[in-house]
Design a protein that fits this description.
This protein is of the alpha+beta class. The protein has one domain (about 1-235). The chain is built from 5 helices and 8 strands; from the N terminus they run H-E-H-H-E-H-E-H-E-E-E-E-E. It has helices at about 1-5, 40-50, 65-80, 100-120, 165-175, and strands spanning about 10-20, 95-100, 130-145, 180-185, 190-195, 200-215, 220-225, 225-235. Strands 1, 2, 3, 4, 5, 6, 7 and 8 form an 8-stranded mixed β-sheet that branches. It is globular and about 55 Å long. This is RES family NAD+ phosphorylase. InterPro entries: RES_dom. It comes from Undibacterium seohonense. It holds the Pfam family RES.
Length: about 240
Amino acid sequence: MQSLFSKVKLQDVHENVFRNIVSLQVSQDLFDDLSDSPEDWALAQKVEDEVKPPTFVSATPIIHRPFEDAHWFNAITWPFQHWQASRYSDGQFGVWYGAESIATTAYETAYHWYFGLLADAGFQEKDVRVERKVYTVACDAALLDLRPFHKSQAGLMHKTDYSYTQAIGTRLHREGHPGLITHSVRNPSGHCYVILNPNVLSHPHHCCHLSYRLDGDVIYVEKKVGDNWLKIAISGL
């Protein structure tokens, strides 16, 4: 790893990055199982809104609106507040992952959906569907560019062993670096942004909805229901 850091260069990034998260396309009322009355649902929602702390405090509150608060939390804040082990974190700190294209986010998240959530639930053999939302988020940072080393440093692209990349993430987090750029493991023609500092992210905007549908050994990605936009073979993930 020492040889890697002695050669790596910085990439000055000022561009929009795609962030892909789980999200319902058709909203559901979380209180409809408590009462049959829409008035009761509205009252329960009002009570929750009054006691729930804000997730984002704007420097210009007269300009920002609650929906922007939700975009900020969903597209930026969540992984920094909900730590979990991932390719570049051992679970001791939060990491935000984005990509240069919607397709790359689909490949990356399809892998974690199938081999993570569905495997844990025992649903890999079933016809299941999940709905997702894609945001664009502005990234302005000097990021370490690991893309030139994806062949010489095998640990960067290993499909299941995260020990090498977690060591990189741990060092960068300890030393205060904002993040890095690396080739996507699930879609090698694309690249991913690994962000350790939320302050370099801003201006989240909803981009589009996606649906993932498992059919045998293929995950079909739809931008519109019934319209297969992308076909991902599980064997290739």
